[in-house]
Specification:
CATH topology of the largest domain: Elastase, domain 1
Number of strands: 34
Number of domains: 4
Helix content: 10-25%
Structural class: alpha+beta
CATH architecture of the largest domain: Roll
Strand order of the largest sheet: 2-14-13-12-11-10-9
């Protein structure tokens, strides 16, 4: 649903695999070979940074919200829900941000050299009056792949900071051993693509940035890891139109550091507002196309979209040397007007041809009729082999062009305000902000002609969206649907369904707002980020259709379902399913964070797990609408979009919950904070919920609105069984506690030990934490044994050691030694004396835990 070099996103509609089975989609995702060597890595303990982070929380006070990135050990989201991070200043926004980082450099574990290598990459002001400043880390001119920090400033005050900087981002050398071509060759072979790699253009002597024929690109970056940084090639790898990989290789060894298949498979004109299967918005009407078509009036091309068919799947399959889409559509792909071509009276009035009869055994059609025949020539069918999907090619393109252009206007309007400065998709940027020349290339009937005039399985039952950086056109691919193989889905065109088209378009919105890595690509490729990407696409789609009167939501559970036109099960539950109560479209009664990784029934899957987030956001919209009858929907749009702008890269659900709270504080003075916390707590994202980051597929759910007086330890209460009660009384900020230190392991410590041997040689063993931690281990004598040895106190520490376990599950050998004075006294002990090993461990956020192990001494 992501850099020097080009990096690409294909973002799809949920579960559009053949038959609409989301479990099949999940299998495809896992089989794509996604790799990130940092997935389970943790930052080393930094006591000074932890102390400074605690000091920052104290300074901010009750409204402090500080989330720590486990990979860097530094803050990934900082805001003050009770105000701002800084006092008002007359300095420009970028200076305010840099001053705060200098002031808090110990909390971010940054030295002066690190600060000097932070540079402003992008700055823009959104329509809500917030200035967004994007900083990028670099080393000797090479950008850090993920080393971006985004800050929000309003009225001279810093509101929030998102994105954890990487401490000590240094390299021993910036000269790669592998050339760009060698790295690209390895990346292509790894995905079983034998395509040749021919260099077209290089910058800075080929070493820094290179462009290859076929659209491939390579650029040198700094790849940060918890304990070091590596020189790496960031690659764009075009395998085929549906497999575009972002691959990062070690520039010295060629080892794969990260890889992700970025294809995740979901005048006037006559068009529908919804789809033929819905009671509302299903009547074709003449729509004003004047603003959607350029002055030529001879094809479906306007300021925000260029729409054509790609029946052979050979248009815009790569980028040319200038980064533009190539090859471009020919006359066989373009859709001219049905009348008045080249004049102001141009019209695209193409009636939809339908076949109401099944036409063949097992064939399925909606009540409105099939719009093509997956079986080819069939007696009695209006669709023949030579004039099959072609009959509705122009109609489908007209329909898609209208939906894409209309949704562009909707997202541009306040309070979403996805404008030119925010990176929207337009040919001409009248404001002069952002980059232009990037209207959406909308392709219909993609691959419909690849096998004897019909599509193959790879070109049916799907849709996707490729989002390139600002200034480069994205591409949306619309496929035909059929139940030809499984005998279930209808023979219809996805371009005729507003649900499909608007869902895909929203992937462009979210990838431009949750921005960016070193090449300007969005950062939504981790498990939880990808799940939210699918959920946002559903939410913005339903939000638009409901507010425009085309998708009813009367309050009865299960009305916001998907795939009815295609007869495909895109989701397991409707988006408006409440937590409690079941119905036909809500068989499990709504999902919570506790269901993460279990929705699909076969493990984590981004489309299925995204339903948790989509249902939560719809709850938020419903509650805000009830609390604010006049502008509740606008508030929901403002908060959800504001959260996207304030998010760190690769967020998890809790990052985004906190970003929405930060947006409420920044844009509304915290007016809806109680309601927001209540909604998220009801879905398992309460005050004590915990996650280890975007790739954590086993997060910890919690249903408490407030942090308990004793902290988040102990057994959390069961999820609520009734409707959520309105919040009452003061509430503590939803600061996320770490899901850490659930176990401290002891290895190599004996159950029984000889006192003489222990006193002579000491005692050794191994200590491990299930997460990265620093520890303080002690040998402790109980009170009775201490008295016997002539030592005072209820308990007496007779030896102590300290150290750090840098990564979860790793162990560290520790040894206890005794001072001579203590050893002399311990010799008085008798057989059977009990001794305790006590380990107090502290995680990178300062949360501690203590465990004990007893051992018995013998003479």
């Amino acid at each position: 649903m992501q850099t020097v070099g080009l990096l690409v996103f294909f973002l799809s509609f949920p579960a559009l695999a053949l038959g609409g089975d989301r479990r099949e989609r999940g299998g495809e995702r896992r089989a794509s070979g996604a790799i990130d060597v940092r997935q389970d890595a943790r930052a080393p303990a930094r006591p000074r940074a932890r102390a400074a982070q605690r000091g920052l929380r104290r300074r901010l006070g009750r409204g402090a919200l500080v989330r720590i990135d486990r990979g860097t050990g530094t803050p990934r989201l900082v805001t003050d829900l009770g105000g701002a991070l800084t006092a008002r200043s007359r300095k420009p926004p970028r200076a305010i941000v840099l001053d705060f980082l200098r002031d808090q450099r110990q909390a971010f574990a940054l030295d002066r050299g690190d600060l000097d290598r932070l540079a402003v990459e992008r700055e823009y002001r959104s329509r809500d009056g917030v200035s967004h400043v994007r900083l990028r880390q670099s080393y000797r001119g090479l950008p850090a792949l993920d080393g971006g920090t985004t800050a929000a400033v309003r009225d001279g005050r810093l509101l929030s900071l998102a994105g954890a900087p990487q401490p000590a981002l240094d390299l021993p050398s910036i000269i790669p051993r592998l050339s760009a071509g060698e790295a690209l060759g390895r990346a292509l072979r790894a995905v079983r693509s034998p395509k040749p790699v021919s260099l077209v253009r290089a910058k800075s002597g080929v070493r820094r940035e290179s462009q290859f024929r076929g659209g491939h690109g390579a650029g040198l970056v700094v790849f940060g890891e918890p304990r070091r940084a590596r020189l790496a090639w960031a690659l764009l790898v075009f395998a085929d139109s549906q497999h575009v990989y972002r691959t990062v290789l070690d520039a010295h060894t060629g080892a794969t550091l990260r890889r992700a298949n970025l294809v995740n498979q979901a005048s006037t004109g006559r068009a529908l507002d919804n789809n033929p299967a819905e009671p509302l918005g299903s009547t074709p009407q003449d729509k004003p196309f004047g603003t959607y078509i350029d002055s030529g009036n001879d094809r479906l091309r306007g300021d925000s979209a260029w729409t054509y068919s790609d029946q052979d799947d050979d248009v815009y399959t790569a980028l040319d040397v200038n980064g533009e889409p190539a090859p471009l559509p020919s006359s066989a792909n373009e859709v001219p007007p049905s009348s008045g071509s080249g004049t102001g009276a141009a019209a695209w009035t193409y009636p939809q041809a339908v076949d109401p009869a099944p036409g063949a055994p097992g064939r399925a059609c909606p009540a409105s009729g099939c719009t093509w025949n997956a079986f080819g020539p069939v007696v009695g069918s209006v669709f023949t082999l030579g004039d099959n999907w072609q009959k509705n090619r122009a109609q489908a393109a007209t329909q898609a062009h209208y939906l894409v252009s209309r949704f562009h206007d909707h997202l541009l309007s306040a309070p979403i305000s996805f404008d030119e400065a925010s990176g929207n998709f337009e040919e001409d940027n009248a404001s002069g902000q952002g980059l232009e020349s990037d209207p959406v290339h909308t392709q219909v009937d993609d691959g419909a002609n690849v096998v004897a005039g019909l599509p193959d399985a790879a070109h049916t039952n799907n849709a996707n969206m490729l989002t390139l950086p600002d200034g480069r056109s994205p591409i949306m691919q619309m496929f035909l649907f059929t139940g030809r193989d499984p005998g279930a889905d209808n023979d219809v065109n996805g371009a005729d369904d507003a649900q499909v088209v608007l869902h895909e378009y929203t992937h462009g919105l979210t990838n431009r707002l949750v921005c960016c890595d070193a090449g300007g690509f969005g950062q939504l490729s981790s498990e939880q980020s990808g799940a939210m990407g699918e959920a946002w696409s559903d939410w913005y789609m339903f939000d638009y259709l409901n507010a425009a009167g085309f998708q009813a939501d009367t309050g009865a559970p299960g009305e916001l379902d998907q795939g009815e036109y295609e007869a495909a099960r895109f989701v397991t539950e409707a988006t408006d399913c409440p937590v409690t109560g079941t119905s036909a479209s809500c068989p499990r009664g709504g999902y919570t964070y506790a269901d993460y990784g279990e929705v699909s029934g076969s493990g984590p899957e981004i489309h299925a797990d995204g339903e948790i987030w989509a249902q939560t956001l719809w709850d938020l919209r419903t509650r805000l609408s009830a609390a604010h009858p006049g502008d509740g929907v606008l508030r929901a749009r403002r908060l959800v979009t504001g959260g996207l702008r304030l998010s760190p890269g690769e967020p998890d659900f809790l990052d985004m919950r906190d970003a929405i709270l930060a947006a409420d504080s920044a844009l509304q003075g915290g007016a809806d904070s109680r309601l927001i916390r209540d909604v998220f707590a009801a879905r398992g994202m309460g005050a004590c919920a915990a996650s280890d980051g975007g790739n954590d597929t086993t997060p910890t759910a919690d249903f408490r609105v407030n942090t308990p007086a004793g902290g988040c330890s102990g057994t959390p209460p069961a999820p609520p069984t009734g409707p959520p009660a309105p919040p009452t009384g003061p509430q503590t900020p939803a600061v996320t506690p770490p899901k850490l230190l659930s176990d401290i392991g002891f290895g190599g410590f004996p159950r029984r030990a000889s006192l003489r041997r222990v006193l002579r040689r000491g005692l050794s063993g191994r200590i491990s934490c299930d997460v990265g931690c620093s520890f303080r281990a002690s040998l402790v004598l109980p009170r009775r044994s201490a008295r016997r040895a002539g030592l005072r106190g209820r308990t007496v520490v007779v030896s102590r050691t300290r150290g750090a376990v840098s990564t979860g599950g790793a162990s560290r050998k520790v040894r206890f030694k005794f001072k001579r004075s203590v050893a002399r006294r311990l010799r008085r002990l008798t057989r059977g004396t009990a001794l305790e090993v006590r380990v107090g461990a502290v995680d990178p956020r300062g949360t501690g835990r203590t465990e004990k192990k007893k051992l018995t001494l013998k003479r």
